[in-house]
Amino acid sequence: MAKTKELSKDTRNKIVDLHQAGKTESAIGKQLGVKKSTVGAIIRKWKTYKTIDNLPRSGAPRKISPRGVKMITRTVSKNPRTTRGDLVNDLQRAGTKVTKATISNTLHCQGLKSYNARCVPLLKPVHVWAHLKFAREHLDNPEEDWENVIWSDETKIELFGKNSTCRVWRRKNAELHPKNTIPTVKHGGGNIMLWGCFSAKGPGQLIHVKERMNGAMYHEILNKNLLPSARALKMKRGWVFQHDNDPKHTARAMKEWLREKHFKVLEWPSQSPDLNPIENLWRELKIRVAQRQPQNITALEEICMEEWAKLPATVYKNLVVTYRKRLTSVIANKGYITKY
């Protein structure tokens, strides 16, 4: 039976007043639009306890003792991958028989809920140390320093597949209606590789890399697009270029070319995508592209270029002016991956 809505305090007071005025339970129910049984229950409570307020309810006794709650909470805190079945077995060995649903409810009351584990880069101790070192060294950099950086990266965008994710409003059992589904094909249906850059002032060049990216290709991309991007963005003298530690980026020939061009390069810790704000830009671009549902590679490239140019200026600005928060998060997380 569905739970009925509780009567307001005002309605319960009226029931008691009408009862004291001599009206019958049936008459009161008809006048106020309340069931006769409900009227009777409220009058009996008032006669017995002289109150119309809700009384304390005892409820069913807890299946897991406070000691058992501490035990399972401590277990999942030490090993978050512990299953509910493991916890059921642990409690059974301790003499308490419960269901998996009871385990879930108990952990929910302790502020613990089951989520899908996030996939993050594998961090070795040397990566953690470098991550933390970078954050501490640059924590007090003025905002103007970050505004004078050109951030860059490459990304792959698939025509169909994991990039094409979105939420839909639908009715129950309508999950397979064409309007509520995302078409997929084997092997993703093709993809394109993009190189892009941006600064707090806006987007730089976005390039479709049509051949396999290698050192020579990367050199050509920077040679043709980095300086024009800096000019279009009206970067101040002494602007800084950021790219990660991909072998193509750190090759000797690439380093020599950057020195010859007198480009300042931001020293970058390995395995730290959360420190590069362009990752957030790629995520936003992929969402916008997926919403337009391109049907072929040509359309995919055109839509990527259009959506890149349409991203609001505030997006670029906000990613940079809040950069100190990223560094603070890295320090708070002791060098490990953060929410960014």
From TrEMBL:
Domain Tc1-like transposase DDE: start-end pairs: 149-300
Highest taxon above the source species: Eukaryota
- UniProt source species: Hemibagrus guttatus
Name the Gene Ontology biological process terms: DNA integration; DNA transposition
**A Pfam family that the UniProt record links to this protein:** HTH_SB
InterPro entries in UniProt: Homeodomain-like_sf (IPR009057), HTH_SB (IPR057667), RNaseH_sf (IPR036397), Tc1-like_DDE_dom (IPR038717), Transpos_IS630-like (IPR047655), Transposase_5 (IPR052338), Transposase_Tc1-like (IPR002492), WH-like_DNA-bd_sf (IPR036388)
This one is known as: Transposase
What Gene3D superfamilies does the entry give? Ribonuclease H-like superfamily/Ribonuclease H, Winged helix-like DNA-binding domain superfamily/Winged helix DNA-binding domain
Coiled coil (UniProt feature): none
